[in-house]
Amino acid sequence: MGISALTPPPNRTAAEDIVETVLEFPDNRLLIDLCGEFDRNLAQIEHQMGVHILRRGNRLAVIGDKAAREQAAAVLRSLYARLESGRDVAAGDIDGAMRMGRPVDADSAEQIELFSTGMELRTRKKPIEPRTEAQKAYVANLFQHELGFGIGPAGTGKTYLAVAVGVTMFISGAVEKIILSRPAVEAGERLGFLPGDMKEKVDPYMQPLYDALNDFLPSKQVEKLLQEKRIEIAPLAFMRGRTLSNAFIVLDEAQNATTMQMKMFLTRLGEGSRMVITGDRTQVDLPRGTASGLAEAERILQGVRGVTFNYFTSKDVVRHPLVGRIIEAYEADEARG
Predict the structure, then answer these.
(1) What angle do CA 214, 215, 221 make, to 5 degrees?
(2) Does 1 score more than 70 pLDDT?
(3) What's the distance, Cα to Cα, between the start and end of the chain in Å?
(4) What predicted TM-score, i.e. pTM, was given to this entire model?
């Protein structure tokens, strides 16, 4: 790849050796992209990793304690490898590299390979990459198992990544259709009083699924596939009595499915299909006294062959950093109560 860590000159003092790691990047054009406009990428790494980065020609000197320097150096190498492969580096990519970065030896390519090839999901509009270790394990399990559960707080990418995997498998021909569903719990008995036909009544509750799809496929293609029923977005209640074959199926907000609804949905799985169940156990909107089907499924299906569970925490939040801190504050309050 052409990146080398330089040994300090002989006249460098031992104290300086301890606090500085110097990296050389042979392609100055890529180095400019690595640093970002007005060095904003370096500033992001400095702020979040507690180091100081100095640019000296085609070299970057990372200053800080040993552990922080090694982690920052791994992140810089991985981002440069990303640029070498022809991909851009945005703020979210830097955040993902920092979340997944670990110390590496200067002559080791193992972690550089992790970021340069990674686990990229190729959709029609943009490539998607897991940004935390938990997300990476989740995506791997969705490809390897027929039924996967993603459980954790909002903003951790549970549904977004599930839809991205579904689109990737659909484009590759591994499945023939995508089916996305949610319980329309908020509507309840009031659904009949809303204006419009049934689609117009339930579409507001399905909007997050439309949003995810439109992130991965051109809007005209989404419309065409919806018309052809190769993509279906429907409330959970519409799944009863169906057998869903050769499809990638996602049930979102599963904490709001009752025990009977969850059992009904799980048993819709047909030949050649993959199913993903996502939910947040802390955001149950069911009537008081009604058991969550997600919690019941989690208890009953642990250890069943072909079923995998992936769990996320506030550390996996990939929205605004404040979202993670908000979730942590609520968790701490619940723990005290």
Answers:
(1) 40
(2) no
(3) 53
(4) 0.65
